[in-house]
Amino acid sequence: MGIVSPGFQGRPRSSAPDLPPGQYLTEDFPVLSAGPTPRVKLDTWEFVLTSETGAEYRWSWDELMGLPQDTPTVDLHCVTRWSKLGTTWQGVSLDTLLDGVDTGARYALAHSYGGYTTNLPLDDLRGGRAWVVHTYDGGPLPAEHGGPARLLVPHLYLWKSAKWVHGIRLLVDDRPGFWETAGYHDYGDPWREQRYQGD
């Protein structure tokens, strides 16, 4: 004898996307910035990775383009409560940029053209979870979305994906960035609603 009545179909599955708590779905790509949009020319652009000892590793635009490229498709979650699903990018994994860098650092501070900064645990930039991206939806990344290149760390709130990224400094001790100094959460996990300090 079965434990389910004949004809029982169960509860229908929801077609709603699985979003972090407090988020709503958008088809747009809202533009939010903490200042004016820098206009960086490709012939002067560079990405600088600085270790905790001061050792520097530099890539010009052409050198970045010559590295192995990934094409991640990821969901984005903004602290202002919108989520955009299935975005497609192209760029270089932080695993590639960190390969061969001798470091005992546990933290990173990303910095941008224009002066913006944001802090992250170094482990969150490794393991195929973070990229320096230059292409969005098949075309060059627009300046208003962080072009020519931005950091992409999609498992955290989008303010951690620094626009107009210029470099990353590796740190032994954590150091808060722009929004973190203003009261935003140091980590910023959207699934735990870590919007502000104390969340």
Entry summary:
With 199 residues, this protein is mainly beta. The protein is built from three helices and eleven strands.
Your description of this structure?
The protein is mainly β. The chain has 3 helices and 11 strands, in the order E-E-E-H-E-E-H-E-E-E-E-E-E-H. It starts with 23 loop residues before the first strand and ends in an 18-residue tail after the last helix. It has a single domain (43-192), classed as Alpha-Beta Complex (Sulfite Oxidase, Chain A, domain 2). The strands form 2 sheets. Strands 1, 4, 5, 8, 9 and 10 form a 6-stranded mixed sheet that branches. Strands 3-2-11-6-7 form a 5-stranded mixed sheet. Residues 35-179 form the Oxidoreductase molybdopterin-binding domain.
Unreliable residue runs? 1-14
Distance between the termini: 50 Å
Write down the overall geometry: globular
Under the CATH scheme, the architecture is Alpha-Beta Complex
Mean pLDDT: 92
Task: Give the C-alpha Rg.
Answer: 19 Å
Number of domains: 1
CATH topology: Sulfite Oxidase, Chain A, domain 2
CATH class annotation = Alpha Beta
Percentage of β-strand residues: 25-35%
Q: Note the run of SSEs as H and E.
A: EEEHEEHEEEEEEH
Helix percent reads under 10%
Number of helices: 3
The CATH superfamily name is: Oxidoreductase, molybdopterin-binding domain
Q: Helix/strand-derived class?
A: mainly beta
Set down the secondary structure blueprint.
Elements: E1 24-25, E2 46-50, E3 56-60, H1 61-65, E4 73-77, E5 82-93, H2 94-98, E6 107-112, E7 117-121, E8 131-136, E9 139-140, E10 150-152, E11 165-171, H3 178-181
Parallel strand pairs: 1-5, 2-11
Antiparallel strand pairs: 2-3, 4-5, 5-8, 6-7, 6-11, 8-9, 8-10
